[in-house]
Design brief:
This protein is an alpha/beta fold. The chain is built from 7 helices and 11 strands. α7 links the parallel β10 and β11.
């Protein structure tokens, strides 16, 4: 999120707060941690009315991705009384926001995590119960497992995702957006052709402008999460390296916001 200080554009003016929403920014194009950047106007979208700049920064790509997953579940016709929805990697960025959004919409949320010390935090955000990482890994050759999940937001991949797919109720969907647990998916076609389970891949980079605007509109209105800034830890640029180390060590719960001034 940046403030426009100079613009040659009919869409944006000095003083506007905008989001840079393009997969090249900060990856193939430098500028992710710059105080001033010069980007094409096609890379920008105005902040949605109803959200402050800090709230948008706190949500970031993780909140946007979580909202995509939840939208896919909602659009599939999933109702709160259909059963439990499992969220893996629930202490990560996408996982935290998925738990919060699902709770906001009235779903029964089961949080999967290997950090029991975070159960109280997740319960406060909306989790109704918890399962361990180990409970979600079944490497047996059985093509189908007992059907228990009405839906899933998976941020892990690998054996965890395969187990969840084999454990999902008939005609329900599993959304997948991560691969920290591995990029391979070892299963048969039986969950798809005998139970009609759907696997929906979630990509936050190559999203159409209209879909991106709609997701952010929901996050600013009917899906608005309150007390977002309580999840934010603000650090100066010179403190970023330490924060990254703590993130890699699994010590951070919530979001790290870098202050560039």
């Amino acid at each position: 999120v940046v403030e426009v200080v100079d613009a040659i554009s009919s869409r944006f003016a000095e003083g506007d707060f905008v989001m840079v929403a393009h997969p090249d920014f900060g990856t193939r194009t430098d500028g992710g941690y710059s105080q001033f950047v010069d980007v094409p106007e096609s890379w920008l979208m105005k902040l949605p009315e109803g959200l402050t700049p800090l709230e948008c920064i706190t949500l970031g790509t993780a909140g946007f991705t979580a909202a995509q997953c939840v939208k896919a579940l909602v659009d599939s016709g999933l109702q709160p009384d259909d059963g439990e929805v499992i969220v893996t990697g629930s202490t990560g960025g996408v996982g935290i926001f998925a738990v919060m959004l699902l709770k906001l919409l009235g779903y029964q949320v089961v949080a999967a995590t290997g950090k029991p010390e975070r159960h109280d935090d997740l319960k406060r955000l909306g989790a109704s119960r918890f399962v361990s990482r180990e409970e979600l890994v079944d490497d047996s050759p059985r093509p189908l497992l007992s059907a228990k999940w009405a839906g899933a937001v998976d941020t892990v991949g690998g054996s965890t995702l395969a187990t969840i797919i084999r454990s999902t109720k008939p005609h329900r969907i599993v959304t997948a957006c991560g691969l920290v647990g591995g990029h391979e998916l070892k299963l048969t076609v039986y969950p798809f052709i005998l139970r009609g389970v759907s696997l929906v891949g979630i990509d936050s980079a190559l999203v159409s402008s209209s879909d991106r605007i709609e997701i952010w509109r929901r996050l600013a209105n009917e899906w608005r999460l309150h007390n977002l800034t309580e999840l934010a830890t603000i650090v100066p640029l010179e403190g970023l390296e330490q924060s990254i180390t703590e993130i890699l060590q699994g010590k951070i719960f919530g979001r790290v916001i870098v202050r560039l001034d």
